[in-house]
Write a structure and sequence with these properties.
This protein is of the alpha+beta class. Helix content is 26%, strand content 37%. It has one domain: START domain (Alpha-D-Glucose-1,6-Bisphosphate, Chain A, domain 4).
């Protein structure tokens, strides 16, 4: 069995609105971190840190593999603590009466040889914290 994170959140906003918070640099800043640029299919993406003394430095990055607005987004994801091992985030937006059911599947943890379970568990906690903010900013 492969180690993967699966998160589903219910957002009181239509998929077109939620999509902007996954793909627009300024909207990402409201719940995750400031984007270096808007996400584009086939392009590179990066989020920037706001840590004192490191403001504006890349903190995580990857490549956008697929964009099917406003239904599906797939991109790679890495950062220094992952020792540049690439994981994959697959976002699915499903329209529901009254909002959007957003599902994230974040996998590829088994490629991290040191402690794949521990690294996935840390990111699982991180996604919980970020999704709390996403709920607030999209409604």
């Amino acid at each position: 069995m492969s180690t993967k994170i699966v998160k589903t959140v219910f957002l009181k906003a239509p998929p077109e609105h939620v999509w902007k918070f996954l793909t627009k640099a300024d909207k990402l800043a409201l719940w995750f971190h400031q984007g270096e640029t808007d996400l584009e299919e086939g392009g590179d993406w990066a989020l920037l840190t706001n840590s004192p003394g490191k403001e504006g430095q890349r903190m995580c990055w990857g490549k956008v593999l697929e964009m099917k607005k406003p239904e599906r987004l797939v991109h790679t994801f890495t950062h220094p603590f992952l020792q540049e091992v690439e994981t994959t985030c697959t976002w699915t937006l499903e329209e529901a009466k009254g909002g959007t059911i957003l599902t994230l599947v974040h996998d590829g943890w088994d490629n991290f040889k040191d402690d794949p379970f521990g690294m996935a568990a840390n990111h699982d906690t991180g996604w919980d914290e970020h999704f709390q903010r996403l709920r607030r900013v999209t409604s």
